[in-house]
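Good morning,

Attaching, inline, the backbone tokens for the sequence recovery test we're adding to the shared suite. The designed sequence is right after.
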């Protein structure tokens, strides 16, 4: 099995190194990732300027390819140019910070997995709750255990999944919850500050936190200390509204 491994934290991030070590326990791994951190870029791609890439090493050990572009760029280029053959799986992560709730829509980590799914390749994003000194190797062990069980279920080609691991789960005793993505609004606040020249600037915050929900979601399950697994779909069509809109009548000038 060949796994294309990428991320949005950059090719030298500790999370991708831990995931590479864990995946090599059962698969061949090709690392193709952004050369610099690309957090929050969503599904941006580069098409107005050329993409550059170079092989990177840790000492004498070849790590893979660093792409001067977005996570989606890295997946596109990895599949098209750098993988020795078509990958069987795309894994994006381990991200430093959860990608749950509406953050899924902003996430470069998830976007890289979505790009893999575009190619008809089963793709999985893996994220770990942020802290100062995270245990990425333990998180990689949990993430790969979930990935292997997913693969045993033989998902359809192009299936897309999102895995989130809270810090509390690293100590053991956590459960895996298969839950939907929360769509509660949050992270709408900005803190206004003044720079040394008297000019105003604004710093985005994550306040207020998501409101409590009566139904379980990725946000509520993570708050309870559980690992979450969410199947995703990049088709944004609101199918419930198709028939009503199609009924018309519509008039054009």
């Amino acid at each position: 099995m060949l796994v294309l491994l990428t991320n949005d934290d950059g090719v030298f991030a500790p999370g991708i190194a831990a995931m590479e070590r864990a995946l090599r326990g059962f698969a061949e791994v090709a690392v193709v990732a952004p050369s610099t951190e690309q957090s929050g870029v969503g599904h941006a791609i580069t098409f107005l300027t050329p993409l550059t890439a170079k092989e990177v090493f840790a000492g004498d050990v070849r790590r893979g390819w660093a792409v001067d572009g977005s996570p989606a760029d890295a997946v596109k280029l990895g599949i098209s140019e750098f993988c020795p053959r078509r990958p069987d799986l795309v894994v994006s992560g381990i991200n430093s910070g959860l990608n749950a709730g509406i953050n899924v829509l902003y996430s470069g980590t998830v976007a890289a997995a979505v790009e893999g799914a575009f190619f008809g390749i089963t793709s999985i994003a893996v994220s770990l709750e942020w802290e100062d000194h995270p245990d990425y190797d333990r998180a990689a062990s949990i993430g790969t255990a979930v990935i292997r069980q997913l693969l045993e279920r033989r998902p359809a080609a192009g299936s897309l999944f999102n895995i989130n691991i809270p810090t509390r789960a690293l100590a053991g005793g956590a459960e895996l919850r298969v839950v939907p993505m929360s769509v509660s609004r949050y992270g709408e606040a900005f803190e206004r500050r003044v720079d040394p020249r008297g000019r105003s600037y604004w710093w985005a915050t994550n306040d207020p936190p998501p409101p409590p929900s009566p139904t379980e979601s990725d946000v509520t399950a993570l708050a309870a200390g559980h690992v979450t697994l969410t199947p995703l779909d990049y088709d944004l069509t609101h199918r419930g509204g198709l028939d009503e809109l199609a009924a018309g009548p519509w008039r054009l000038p």
